[in-house]
Amino acid sequence: MTDNGNGWVMRDNATHKGAAETRGRRHRRWRVSAALGLTAVLAGGAIAALRTAGSPAPDPSQPAAAIASHSGRLTPDESRAASRIAVDAATRPGTTPARGGQDVKKDAKQDTGSGERNAAGGSGAEPLDTRRPPRAKSVSSAPDGRAEVQLYDYASDTLITRLVDLRAGKVLDSARQRGVQPPPTLAEAREAVKIVLADRRLGPGMRDSYASQTGKRLTSPSQLLLQGMSFLGSRAKGVDGARQVSRCGEHRCVQLFVRIPGGKWIDTSRIVIDLSARHAAVIGL
């Protein structure tokens, strides 16, 4: 996303000018409860777009010649089909060893998708990313119908990587990782906004900010321009409210960059949304 052709730059909106100035600009600012010690201000400017992580780097232990750089991108239809197969997980994972990574474990249960949950609490893990897996150069460069899908299971707080066969419509391999938090998707960012809007402390302020800029009611996250980044509890060490976000990293937590279309930014930099626990916290970053 860009703003008038320029990259988006996040601005620090923290201020020490006093409560009097804050009260004097109520119509431009989102106030959070005084007990929380936070005033979220509307700010102009831009935010650098966050890019979803790309394909993992090749294992350096393998000869460079053995790794193909790419075999073509998945088409939108292939991506949708791969995600559907991975979420449905209609078969058991294959016998191919799990790829390397931190705390990687093969799925122990049948790959039926039973018990897995998405960001909204619905059945099936949350799709995050799809890509073609790297292949050996000795293999034909023509796409072979395989796709690698990353999903997040909110029921177990695990990142799942599933290798699927698009032609056969089945899962070939599946592995889980704990404590790994890729960037959130737009769907997850919108779910985070829903949690903020449902919060009796924070929701009214966001609605007031939107109404003051547009003259309209904020009823859906789709009315906002959103970007998000994963948040780890270690980032809050030593700041006010750190205990409220201490499980972030184990839980799926995000920070949001929120813009009113054609208007200004709503500063949510001190708000951390725990998607796993479905609550928002204000911290003193």
Short description:
The chain has 285 residues and is α+β, with helices and mostly antiparallel strands. The protein is 15% helix and 22% strand.
SSE-based structural type: alpha+beta
Low-confidence parts: 1-70, 90-104, 107-113
Cα radius of gyration in angstroms:
21 Å
**SS strand fraction:** 15-25%
DSSP helix count?
4
Brief descriptors of the model:
12 strands; disordered N terminus; 285 residues; alpha+beta; five-stranded antiparallel β-sheet; 4 helices
Description:
- The structure is a single chain.
- This protein is α+β, with helices and mostly antiparallel strands and 285 residues long.
- It is built from four helices and twelve strands; from the N terminus they run αββαβββββααβββββ.
- The protein has helices spanning 19-24, 76-88, 186-198, 203-214; strands spanning 29-31, 39-43, 105-106, 126-131, 146-153, 158-165, 170-177, 225-230, 253-259, 265-266, 271-274, 279-282.
- Strands 1, 2, 8, 9, 10, 11 and 12 form a seven-stranded antiparallel beta sheet that branches.
- Strand 5 and strand 6 (158-165) form a beta hairpin.
- Helix 3 (186-198) crosses helix 4 (203-214).
- The protein starts with 18 loop residues before the first helix and ends with a strand.
- The relative contact order is 0.16.
